[in-house]
Design goal:
globular; 2,3-Dihydroxybiphenyl 1,2-Dioxygenase, domain 1; alpha+beta; single chain; eight-stranded mixed beta sheet; about 15% helix
């Protein structure tokens, strides 16, 4: 189980993470552009060089981030972050997702994705954005 911070950028994610890497040290555990997305996923030419997902270990957690693709609204500085929770199982991810989404808004239901066996996004009733994932293979 891990709770990490996920940052959204408007095209300068790679620049920001290069600085964070210089400051904190370490190596990226993931560095993926939208151009790296599997072929069955539509990606505009303008988005191909943008960061889809980057993860930098810092201490016992990870600082993660991405650029906002052109089909989504721009990130608003000040609320351009989510808390990312990785549960030990799909059942636990579902439990956490259901509890956090009660009274809030589901932005992406829990589902299998090409980057995670089980993943969903929501904004809780307090306005906090969450990304919930399950470790390991889908159940």
């Amino acid at each position: 189980m891990a709770l990490n911070t996920y940052l959204n950028f408007n095209g300068n994610c790679a620049e920001a993470f290069a600085q964070y890497k210089e400051i904190f040290g370490g190596e990226y555990t993931t560095f993926m552009t939208f151009g790296d997305v599997p072929g069955d996923q539509p990606v505009s030419d303008a988005d191909k060089g943008k960061i889809m997902h980057v993860s930098l270990p810092i201490g016992t957690g990870h600082l993660m981030g991405s650029d906002m693709p052109g089909y989504l609204p721009k990130a608003t500085i000040g609320d351009n972050f989510s808390l990312s929770y990785e549960a030990p199982s799909q059942a636990e991810a579902d439990r956490i997702f259901a509890a956090l989404s009660a009274g809030g808004k589901v932005t992406m239901p829990m589902q299998k994705t090409f980057w995670s066996p089980w993943f969903g996004m929501l904004t809780d009733r307090y306005g906090i954005q969450w990304m919930i994932a399950a470790e390991g293979p889908a159940e």
